[in-house]
Write a structure and sequence with these properties.
The radius of gyration is 27 Å and the shape is elongated. It has two domains: about 1-45 and about 95-205, Ribosomal Protein L4, Chain: A, CATH 3.40.1370.10; about 50-90, no CATH class. It contains seven helices and six strands, in the order ββαααβαβαβαβα. A six-stranded mixed sheet has the order 2-1-3-6-4-5. Helix 2 crosses helix 3 and helix 4 packs across helix 5. Strand 1 and strand 2 (about 10-15) form a beta hairpin. The protein is an alpha/beta fold.
Length: about 210
């Protein structure tokens, strides 16, 4: 699969052949869904918690005597039915993460890349470098390329000026190639890869 390489200025810089085993697969929605669910569950904090009856700081003495009052039998004011009592079956702190095989995670990334390539939402840029690190200049380059909602993946080391100039632009995410992930690929309209990112991905899945 051949795709042309462009520059940030909008010019042409040759072409590159993308590996079919990475960018040419028929996307499977079930694998993508499993991976997105895995990612979102893994990053969920799980710090929600309410106090049960054993954790309430309240007297444990019997409310009133067992018999002779004509009222219901109660043993503790910390029971859930009383105001100020513990919460019955409330949420507790826990991890929401679940397992997903490593091979399925790797396959999901290849299907996500293939999905963007098939839909025409993949752009390859020769180099992600900004001379002055100014957001206005970088934004004008993105407008020229038609990038309004995009994930931009650079090489192992991002250019500091480019990263700084792009971080305040809405709906634009910039990540090194190590941070590429299925959820961010799918949530953005366009995927922009640098030449270095393409080479790193092909080396990774070789």
């Amino acid at each position: 699969m051949d795709i042309k390489i462009t520059t940030l200025a909008g010019g042409e810089a040759g072409s590159v052949t993308l590996a079919d085993e990475i960018f040419g697969l028929e996307p499977r929605q079930d694998i993508l869904q499993r991976m997105v669910r895995y990612q979102l569950a893994k990053r969920q904090q799980g710090t929600h918690q309410s106090l049960g009856r054993a954790e309430i700081a309240r007297t444990g003495a019997k409310l009133y005597k067992q018999k002779g009052t004509g009222r219901a039998r109660h043993g503790s004011a910390r029971a859930p039915q009383f105001r100020g009592g513990g919460k019955a079956h409330g949420p507790v702190s826990r991890s929401h993460a679940h397992d997903l095989p490593k091979k399925v995670r790797a396959l999901a990334l290849r299907h996500a890349l293939s999905s963007k390539a098939k839909s025409g939402g993949l752009i390859v840029i020769d180099d992600l470098v900004s001379q002055d690190g100014k957001t206005k200049a970088t934004l004008s380059q993105f407008v020229g390329l038609g990038l309004t909602n995009a994930l931009i993946i650079g090489g192992a080391q991002l250019d500091a000026n480019f990263s700084r100039s792009a971080r305040n632009i809405p709906n634009i995410d910039v990540l090194p190639v190590q941070g590429i992930n299925v959820y961010d690929i799918l949530r953005r309209q366009t995927l922009v890869l640098s030449k270095a990112a393409v080479e790193a991905l092909e080396e990774r899945f070789k």
